[in-house]
């Protein structure tokens, strides 16, 4: 509702746990895997996506309908979270949901870079963050990276993006811009956490954020190492994690075995043991990234159980909801492309 | 004035015919504090209950029962009041 007043975790967490219970589970996914896109949208109509499906049903059909309804449902759910929360809880949730501002800015930048037409870019926006519709529309219409930077002047992304835009002009690569966005987002996130030490709910949240940043660093490093680009991962290191220092990251990303070993010995070792074994065997990055996602959901859920009166359960719900949307999208796209249900099953992130 | 303070104090003490707070007064205090405690407990439970009912109407009865549970502490306070 607003950042004033006192925090109301009781109310928000009661509603959030009810919502969590309505998320699709293993059973639902199994059913969806056997359906055609039209049947999937029909199935979604009987779930929490009823509103968006009905609204968009007359304009779109098939996979497009599913895609739009998923994005609209996501935005709707997160707007509701903000409407429920008050005080400090609102502030923390709002800071976390800026993730979607970051996503939208990235989408706009990528659109400009790839020369995609504004309509296609608009389709990919998730209107869940703090930017209002007017600003988002302007971002979509922007014709150059500089125009985007000008539009974002005064927001948390303004200054970092302006600095990164110069680098972009020189190198013509997107990576500096995207990393500037990520960094701005995470820096802002940590400002909302008062203490990172001790054993209270705040430190559990801080620990979760550290895990998220660590996993992002791991992912970036692995991707860069794999693509073979001549970029030093340390340049794009996101501060705040505990797993690496920038120097460690740049040496480790060149040698994957060492990187795996480093993760195995860290505090995430137990959570990720299975995924690491799999990656060492199958040589597949996708499987590992899914395992990272699943570990993150698990981590947030544990923090939420341990501290039910903090922001943790809300964050756990946000993550679980995102995974749900990803999963349904994967099923719809996969089915349309004629993939085998078993193959699609491997793409899902189910707790 | 200060020289006399001790004498005045002892006079006052002698004058008092009983304890500063009578047992009825103490019992009244107990009821008041218990009410305050029950109110604080219901604040949290109540807002969680409203959240749960907003998501699912069927929970209304359970939510109502859980919300008034802290009132039981007041019954004890009333017993204390009667006994006092």
Automatic annotation (TrEMBL), chain A:
Keywords carried by this UniProt record: ATP synthesis, Cell membrane, Hydrogen ion transport, Ion transport, Membrane, Transport
UniProt membrane topology term: Peripheral membrane protein
Top-level taxon: Archaea
Cellular compartments per GO CC: plasma membrane; proton-transporting V-type ATPase, V0 domain
InterPro entries cross-referenced by the UniProt entry: ATPase_csu/dsu_sf, ATPase_V0-cplx_csu, ATPase_V0-cplx_csu/dsu, V-ATPase_V0D/AC39_subunit, V-type_ATPase_csu/dsu, V-type_ATPase_csu/dsu_dom_3
Biological process annotations from GO: proton motive force-driven plasma membrane ATP synthesis
Name of this protein: A-type ATP synthase subunit C
Lineage of origin: Archaea, Methanobacteriati, Methanobacteriota, Stenosarchaea group, Halobacteria
Gene that this sequence comes from: atpC
Automatic annotation (TrEMBL), chain B:
Subcellular location(s) per record: Membrane
Listed GO MF terms: proton transmembrane transporter activity
Signal peptide: none
Recorded topology in the membrane: Multi-pass membrane protein
GO CC annotation terms, alphabetical: proton-transporting two-sector ATPase complex, proton-transporting domain
Keyword NADP: no
UniProtKB keywords: Membrane, Transmembrane, Transmembrane helix
Superkingdom of the organism of origin: Archaea
Protein's recorded name: V-type ATP synthase subunit K
